[in-house]
Amino acid sequence: MAFVKRNVRWPPVMAALLIAALFLVALDERGSGPITSLRRVAREVISPLQTGVNTVFNPVRDLFDGVLNYGQLRDRNLELTRNNEALRGKLLRERAVGSKVGELEKLLDLPTFEDATGVAARVVGGSPGNFERTVLINKGTTSGIKIGDPVVAGSGLVGKVTAVSRTVATVTLINSAGFGVGVRLENSNERGIAEGKSGESEMKLSFLTNVQVVVKKGELTFTSATEDAVFPPDIPVARVVSTQKLTGDLEPRITLKPVVNLDDLTYVKVLR
Amino acid sequence: MMTRRLRLFLLVLSLVVLQTTIATHLHVFGAIPDLLLVATVAVAYNEGPQTGSLFGFFSGLVLDLFLVSPFGLSAVSFSLTGFAIGTFQSGMAFQSRRTQVLLAALGGLIAGSIFAIVGGAVGRAGYFSLHSAQVIVVGSVWNAVVAVPIFMFVRWALMTERLRRY
């Protein structure tokens, strides 16, 4: 059985294929419902096979990771132990201040990101394509996850859910090109947009409400509280790693590093 | 006896499962191999531009179901690559394993460039960038690395009943 008939005239058929594909691209860019449904069904159909392959492959991957990165793991373990001790001390010192802040928040009825309920999920894969920064998690609509839900890891913001099926969901990371997060600066509370840069793990801070603001290296940025914000307020997003203002620049060039290591995610929490 | 259409279905299904599971862990300088693209190149290599572009179109659509980039973008790049490789291959005097590896890399360069150009043209941020060029080049090397087993898999899938008896 031939895959195609031999007597097909090719340039017109090639043109028809191209037109069909470009039509689909345009349709999807306008937010087509049938394409979203088709994607969801495809993910549901294939997810048992993906689970099977991951179940077999993950122990092998973990074994290789353990053997190849033994030195790194040991150093990291030591660093984490040191950090843990330092954080214990800091926590004890801040406990007294924290109780006062909590009381004030209750009085003012301010929402915090701890208020949001969440679903813990495991990262089971990365992006299957070369032009996007996403991860696949092992929870979907059956766990109440929907498109647009914010995703956090222990110390800060990871991204948001951009595709979901019954059992898995795709999370687009905050340092993806074109991804923007409304943030406020830790010291000045000035607002801006933290955006992903193509191919880089770092982000840039732009559209500051006050371009004269003094931004310090190491300063944290948090999700800002606005009326139609995608993310709950006060989630740590990134830390300032460099700032410079060249002659002629309208605003300073501020580079941010996400507080979460987005290249090494294992568990995340989807906020609802 | 499995029909050729069923074998092609199994080929696409297996490669899409591998692409969305194991391949996602194979990042080198931000790039991973594109298994369905290599299969498209292999089909075009074995059967010419017609079958290559049709297979590229449908396998690209299947891959697009699992990406967050615009639906149809892989279909555009894969079908054009299938057509280009099939046309190029039909003028070649010698065919060897080395040719397969080189064609897989060439297919990666063609498809990656088309993907970046069309993606950038429809307004996706970061597609026109130095990083995209790096990803295209490293991805092409990855495609060359996985070419030989995928070409064998594709040959099995394309084999007609008459040929199988010999």
Characterization of this structure:
The complex is a heterodimer of chains A (272) and B (166). Chain A is an alpha+beta fold. Chain A has a domain at 118-272: Beta Barrel (Thrombin, subunit H), CATH 2.40.10.340. Helices cover 35% and strands 26% of the residues of chain A. Chain A has a 6-stranded antiparallel β-barrel with strand order 1-2-5-4-3-12. Chain A has a 6-stranded antiparallel barrel with strand order 6-7-8-11-10-9. In chain A, strand 3 (150-153) and strand 4 (156-164) form a beta hairpin. The longest helix of chain A has 39 residues, at 70-108. Chain B has 166 residues and is mostly helical. Chain B has a single domain (4-160), classed as Orthogonal Bundle (Arp2/3 complex 21 kDa subunit ARPC3). Helices cover 73% and strands 0% of the residues of chain B. Chain B has 8 helices and no strands. Chain B has helices at residues 4-20, 35-47, 49-64, 73-90, 97-121, 130-145, 147-158, 161-165. The mean pLDDT of chain B is 89. Chains A and B meet through helix 1 and helix 2 of A and helix 1, helix 3, helix 4, helix 5 and helix 6 of B.
